[in-house]
Amino acid sequence: SPLEAAKQTAAHKAINKHVENNFVLGIGSGSTIVYAVERLAERVAKENLEVVCIPTSFQAKQLIVKHGLKLGSLDTHPILDVCIDGADEVDANLNIIKGGGACLLEEKIIASCANGLVIIADYTKNSTKLGDQYKKGIPIEVVPMSYVPVRNKIRNTFGGEVNLRMAVAKAGPVITDNGNFILDWVNFKQLDDWKEVNTAIRMIPGVVETGLFLQMAKIVYFGQADGTIKEQT
Ligand code: DER
């Protein structure tokens, strides 16, 4: 499909351009990253590259192992050369919503340890203001016992609606790789400067992390349906 082709185009571009021998690279989560790991495995085999991959989720770890790539961790590699990851929406100021796959906590930690965060996405993620295109809300990871007061505080302070993310293949709420719940904050007011709101939300006791990756990416590759790539820096 054009969408899958767009994901693959962006993924291959990032791997071809941002991975060098002896690199330590963060591997993101989601569906677009699958194409990136496939291309990485090709390059490692063809060019006999030495790379260590640091996962941002159980899914990423499975991908790394499945493709026979070297698995590392922050214990042995606390500084990464690059982190490559997907996104749910990117605004005109390079503010990004991530967490559609409920992996935002480790994604943000790994991204923060990398010398550069490279985002790969299909054209549907290219937006002007957060919330224009992506309607599933800003994910917020919370400690399970706190989700009701946290939900109420966000709703009362910032407006919109806040929903506990329920699982599909499991009864009850989604449980993240770190044993937490995800709240999705929908119908929020679309802002230009998200820094203040993000900090205020993160200060609420019980909030672990938000899916707002503000000015963290150094470049975004948007794969297009016609096989070309749009870049945003
Ligand atoms: O959950 C996440 O943060 C993922 O990276 C998500 O933002 C991108 O998922 P996709 O590549 O399947 O669209």
Automatic annotation (TrEMBL):
One of its GO terms (cellular component) is cytoplasm. Pfam families: Rib_5-P_isom_A (PF06026). It is an enzyme of class 5 (isomerase). InterPro entries: NagB/RpiA_transferase-like, Ribose5P_isomerase_typA_subgr, Ribose5P_isomerase_type_A. Its EC number is 5.3.1.6. GO terms for molecular function: ribose-5-phosphate isomerase activity. Keywords: Isomerase. It comes from the Eukaryota. Pathway: Carbohydrate degradation; pentose phosphate pathway; D-ribose 5-phosphate from D-ribulose 5-phosphate (non-oxidative stage): step 1/1. GO terms for biological process: D-ribose metabolic process; pentose-phosphate shunt, non-oxidative branch. The keyword Isomerase applies. It catalyses: aldehydo-D-ribose 5-phosphate = D-ribulose 5-phosphate. NCBIfam families: PRK00702.1, rpiA. Belongs to the ribose 5-phosphate isomerase family. This is ribose-5-phosphate isomerase. It comes from Photinus pyralis. The lineage of its organism: Eukaryota, Metazoa, Ecdysozoa, Arthropoda, Hexapoda.
